[in-house]
Amino acid sequence: MAHEILKKLPEDVIIYILLRLPVKSLMRFRCISKTWYILIPSSTFINLHLNCSKTAKEEFIILKRSLQVDPFQHKTTLSFLFGDDLNPVSPDLDVPYLESTFVNDYDQFIGPCHGLIALVNMINTILFNPTTRNYRLLPPCPDAPQGFRCSVDGVGFGFDSMANDYKVVRIFKVYNDPPYRDPYSREQKVEVYDMITDFWRELENIDQDLPRIYWTPCSMVFYKSACYWLAIGSKDKMIILYFDMVTEIFNTINLPDTCNSYNGPHYGLVVLSDSITMLRYPNPNPEYDPAQDLMQIWMMKEYGLYDSWMKIYTVRPLLIESPLLIWKDYLMLCESREGSLISYDLKLDKVQEFNLQGCPTSLRAICYKESMIQIPCESKDSAQVQFF
């Protein structure tokens, strides 16, 4: 009966209906006919579905945390949460290749970019589609030359719309060994990994006075074809450093004068209402009294214009380790001092704690919408796409 009805519908109407369906349903519907089996996984349909999903309101939270397996082993786990009560929507996933003998509190959790996210530690980079559960281990970065050591300052992941290519960027310093980390013998370098070539390449003519990356759990975002990091500029002033994925050029954006002091408060970076947003919050170090300082949330109303910074929230003192993200434009997720997930409602001034615990300082979180985007695997010699 259903098959007969479908045969009477015009093809464009059927495609329109399919584009409104969730990914899990589409995966099942591929077996209905040969036409759908070819149509649904095609790049044209996937891109159309991605554009439709950008306007959809349904999204969920992916929480990354480090869990201790035994005294000498830690694992990286992803939890998938939905609704204001952050209920789990599927079982947790343990991420391969990110096991460690120490707490994974320096892991980077970047994205989403077209439905793909990158999980990065000091050695491995994993590209992952949470909807399809497909992942791929990217080739390792080149080792430092003999007699030298590398210190990674920052990483980013994004999409080059001109080359139609996903890229990973790594900012690092090279030191003589010995002496390790001699400030007078270091050299700033930047490497870019192209999915199309499956190869890391070093960028030339990198400014040796490039601002230092400022590390916090939410200090990097991908926004409008560029990676953004909080950074420390001249005279220890906080700024935003960004790298355009298309031109592969670095540039900077100044922060408000009242929120650019490196000494004292901590800072975070998020995208709120499709705008770059900066969070200034009390230093969690016991030497500082967070009760004496308020959190401030500043939004850049017009992209790239310094004068458009506007303070949109002042938040009462919260005893947190760090903010993680702002969801639905009002619910701020944070990590507590003990390593548990808490939320703060910016509208209702309400704090809620959840039964989601990780090793202290290891929590990361991103907002995610379903996507069928396939993980590129251009080279036959590259690591193949695998399934969780």
The amount of helix comes to: 10-25%
Strand content bin: 35-45%
Name the quaternary structure.
single chain
In the predicted model, the low-confidence regions spanning at least 5 consecutive residues are: none
The major β-sheet equals: 5 strands, antiparallel
Task: Fill in the CATH topology of the largest domain.
Answer: Neuraminidase
**Which class do the helix and strand fractions yield?**
mainly beta
CATH class bucket of the largest domain: Mainly Beta
Strands side by side in the biggest sheet: 4-5-6-7-26
SSE blueprint and pairings:
Blueprint: H1 2-8, H2 11-19, H3 23-29, H4 34-39, H5 43-55, E1 60-70, E2 73-82, E3 87-94, E4 108-113, E5 116-120, E6 125-129, E7 134-137, E8 148-160, E9 165-176, E10 187-194, E11 199-202, E12 212-213, E13 220-223, E14 226-232, E15 238-244, E16 250-254, E17 266-272, E18 275-281, E19 295-300, E20 309-315, E21 320-327, E22 331-336, E23 340-345, E24 350-357, E25 364-368, E26 386-387
Antiparallel strand pairs: 1-2, 1-25, 2-3, 4-5, 5-6, 6-7, 7-26, 8-9, 9-10, 10-11, 12-14, 13-14, 14-15, 15-16, 17-18, 18-19, 19-20, 21-22, 22-23, 23-24
InterPro entries: F-box-assoc_dom_typ1, F-box-assoc_interact_dom, F-box-like_dom_sf, F-box_dom, SCF_F-box_component
Pfam family, one: F-box
Domain F-box: 3-48
